[in-house]
């Protein structure tokens, strides 16, 4: 099975979520189920069913995170030799050659991707087009609206 790349920050965030689910959420859900049980008939008890649903979601998420953590390859950008080439974990500034719009993205693992935070998955069309290229190179990204050309303006390893 192939390992899934993840940044150090992504691993820390996943481990923190797992710890919160196990040490905070799980005990509070168990307490909510116990409280709901005290109210009597479980068939018609909405609080009980809501708590059980929460428990199911939390346990599923715990299993999901544990599975992901067992199959990741953490890449510390600060320990990888780099130059002007775009690699996993790099922060890349690109210029849309049609609109002159400048955008900056950090290339991260799937679980870390969040466009609002300028983090894109290494598997996204933009990241795939950028990987391995250097500052000054022009890349073509296949978009639903047609091909878009970008120039790589800067590559940082922060």
Biggest β-sheet, characterized? 5 strands, mixed
Determine the CATH topology of the largest domain: Chitinase A, domain 3
Instruction: For the record, give the distance between the C-alpha atoms at the N and C termini, rounded to a whole number.
Output: 30 Å
Query: Strand-and-helix sequence, N→C?
Result: EHHEEEEHEE
User: What's the number of extended β-strand segments?
Assistant: 7
Could you name the CATH homologous superfamily of the largest domain?
Transcription elongation factor, GreA/GreB, C-terminal domain
Unreliable stretches: none
Structural class: alpha/beta
In angstroms, what is the radius of gyration?
22 Å
- Count up the domains: 2
CATH domain class of the largest domain: Alpha Beta
Strand order of the largest sheet: 5-4-3-7-6
- How much of the sequence lies in strands comes to 25-35%
CATH architectural group of the largest domain = Roll
Count the DSSP helices: 3
Structure description:
- The protein folds into two domains: 4-74, Helix Hairpins, CATH 1.10.287; 77-156, Transcription elongation factor, GreA/GreB, C-terminal domain (Chitinase A, domain 3), CATH 3.10.50.
- 38% of the residues lie in helices and 26% in strands.
- It is built from three helices and seven strands, in the order βααββββαββ.
- The chain has helices at 8-37, 46-69, 125-130; strands spanning 4-7, 72-75, 91-96, 102-108, 119-121, 138-143, 146-156.
- The longest helix has 30 residues, at 8-37.
Outline of this structure?
This protein is of the alpha/beta class.
């Amino acid at each position: 099975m192939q390992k899934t790349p993840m940044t150090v920050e992504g691993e820390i965030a996943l481990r923190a979520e797992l710890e919160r689910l196990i040490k905070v959420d799980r005990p509070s859900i168990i307490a909510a189920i116990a409280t709901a049980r005290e109210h009597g008939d479980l068939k018609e008890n909405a609080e009980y069913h809501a708590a059980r649903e929460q428990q199911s979601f939390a346990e599923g998420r715990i299993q999901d995170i544990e599975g992901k953590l067992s199959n990741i390859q953490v890449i510390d950008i600060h320990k990888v030799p780099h130059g002007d080439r775009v690699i996993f974990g790099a922060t890349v500034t690109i210029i849309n050659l049609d609109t002159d719009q400048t955008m900056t993205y950090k290339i991260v693992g799937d679980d870390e991707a969040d466009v609002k935070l300028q983090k894109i998955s290494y598997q996204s069309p933009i990241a795939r087009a950028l990987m391995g290229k250097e500052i000054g190179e022009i890349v073509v990204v296949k978009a639903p609206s047609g091909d878009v050309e970008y120039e790589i303006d800067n590559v940082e390893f922060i």
